[in-house]
Write a structure and sequence with these properties.
With 211 residues, the protein is mainly alpha-helical. It has helices at residues 2-18, 25-41, 49-59, 64-91, 97-127, 150-159, 184-199, 206-210; strands at 139-145, 165-171, 178-182.
């Protein structure tokens, strides 16, 4: 909703300027700026608001990880298109250095936004361990058959409300019996351990993985 409001604000700005654009040069320029911002910010490319809206929708059905990969590819495609447009405009005598700057920045920002989103989710979970001993907290629990992988654990971390305690219940596939329960501390450890097994054979510290 916040991302949608950002696009809507630019649209409302366009409508407001449209009333005076015909007779006022400043209103016309402001109309052009708001329209450009509204259209550009609606693109499904990270970290623009259009991509944030799509990620919020796909998170409802558990497909945000696949959506992130597609949106990252879209970011690279839009970045390349902007760079090519900047080169073409320079070739025809209409040099626009903004296009050459926005393209690489968009590609970098798209990659960084995914990394920061994952790191931020884990950091928020670790910071929430400092809870008062004299309070009761609601529990956000998920059940999974077998051992959950890192992507599944990270998805649970992202979906867990800020004031809730996260638990993962492991069920036996054959009997449906409860095999074990992973606490927040164990969930974070499992995410880091799987990252170590996938990336490099030697052991990392938590600070290495975050970096």
């Amino acid at each position: 909703w916040i991302a949608a409001c950002g696009i809507l604000a630019s649209g409302v700005g366009c409508l407001g300027c449209l009333l005076f654009a015909a007779n006022n040069r400043f209103a016309y320029e402001l109309l052009t700026a708001n329209l450009s911002l509204c259209l550009f910010n609606s693109l499904p490319a990270l970290p623009l608001d259009g991509s944030k809206m799509l990620l919020a929708l796909t998170a409802k059905v558990g497909l945000e990880r696949k959506a992130e990969k597609l949106l990252l590819c879209s970011s690279y495609a839009v970045a390349a298109a902007l760079c090519l447009l900047g080169v073409w405009s320079a070739a025809v005598g209409l040099l626009n250095p903004t296009l050459l700057l926005i393209g690489p920045y968009l590609a970098y920002a798209g990659k960084t936004s995914i990394r920061e989103s994952m790191i931020g989710s884990i950091q928020r979970l670790e910071e929430r361990r400092k809870r008062s001993e004299d309070r009761l907290y609601p529990v956000c629990s998920y059940a999974v058959v077998g051992r959950p992988d890192g992507a599944m654990l990270l998805r649970a971390v992202r979906r867990c409300p800020e004031n809730a305690y996260l638990l993962i219940c492991q069920m036996d596939e054959a009997t449906g019996a409860l095999v074990g329960i992973s606490t927040e501390n164990q969930i974070v450890q499992n995410i880091f351990q799987e990252h170590e097994m996938i990336t490099k054979p030697h052991r990392h510290t938590k600070s290495d993985v975050l970096q």
